Amino acid sequence: MADPSQDATVASWVRQHGTLARFDLEIALCHILDCSRAHLLTHPDRALNQPELAQLERWSDQLYKHVPIAYLCGNQEFWGLSLTVDHRVLVPRPDTETLVEQTLACMAQQDPSPSTGTALRLLDLGTGSGAIALALASERPDADVHACDCSLDSLAVARENSRSLRLPVTLHHSDWFDNISQRYDLIVSNPPYIAPSDPHLDLLGAEPAHALVADDNGLADLRTICEQAGRFLQTNGWLLLEHGFDQAEAVRSLLSNNGFIDVQSRRDLGGNERVTWGQKPSDQALSAHE
Ligand code: GLN
């Protein structure tokens, strides 16, 4: 019988899986053939041997089941950092870099900490792989970066990333603010915000649902955070939130209704309002809203 791998090449394998995302196929090929993307693109006739083809087919089977390519490779680039990721954590999305950018802009306005005159203290709520906290720690080694998650599995991944990237982050096991006792100059979060009925969830089934889905049309966790964050922020501290493409107005209301001032939103690279933030006035002004 003819060997099925005999004529298999990079180009024929990509053609054969034309319904999968081209970028995912290229990442799979680079990883399994241990070559650069440039090499791949300039050598489409590179033959695939039997073991290579077998592994590529195992991976494409997973891609058809919507397993993210990042889980297959075991890592994902975010803010120029290579993060270890697996089924325990949400894969960091490029949209979330918008949240990092805006947080850095708010940090620049706050320098040095208005409350203590010392290092700015920052908390990333629901850190997952640690992406946001680690990106901020990489840009601002002078800041005191903390992060929490309700999942011990996520914290294990974040700890591994913090160690391997040599970026110190203090990790807390906490469901939102339940085990948080200190105050911060900035609180940032990319909480779950997808409505349970959203059809996109079918494509995200390999990722932890608790990191993606929130009740109340996706707003339940955003609401909890907006209601509680004031007590964990210093005066003039910022709360910055990522949210769904159609939730900016709702999140602006949540922030304003909970006493935050200077509430603004910012678009991601896809043009959707993706990040909304506000500043905490003094405790007295905030509690007047309660
Ligand atoms: N931005 C992610 C997505 O739509 C969702 C992340 C989240 O719920 N925080 O795939």
Task: Please characterize this protein's 3D structure.
The protein has helices spanning 10-16, 22-33, 37-42, 50-64, 69-73, 96-110, 131-139, 152-164, 220-228, 248-257, 283-287, and strands spanning 75-78, 81-84, 121-125, 144-149, 170-173, 184-189, 233-242, 261-267, 273-279. By secondary structure, the protein is of the alpha/beta class. It folds into two domains: 10-65; 88-289, 3-Layer(aba) Sandwich (Rossmann fold). The strands form two sheets. The protein has a seven-stranded mixed beta sheet, sandwiched between helices. A two-stranded antiparallel ribbon has the order 1-2. A hairpin with a 5-residue loop joins strand 8 (261-267) and strand 9. Helix 2 runs antiparallel to helix 4 (50-64) and helix 6 crosses helix 7. Glutamine binds at residues 93, 95, 190-194, 204, 212.
Q: What keyword list fits this structure?
A:
single chain, 290 residues, alpha/beta, Rossmann fold, 2 domains, seven-stranded mixed β-sheet, two-stranded antiparallel ribbon, 37% helix, 18% strand, binds glutamine
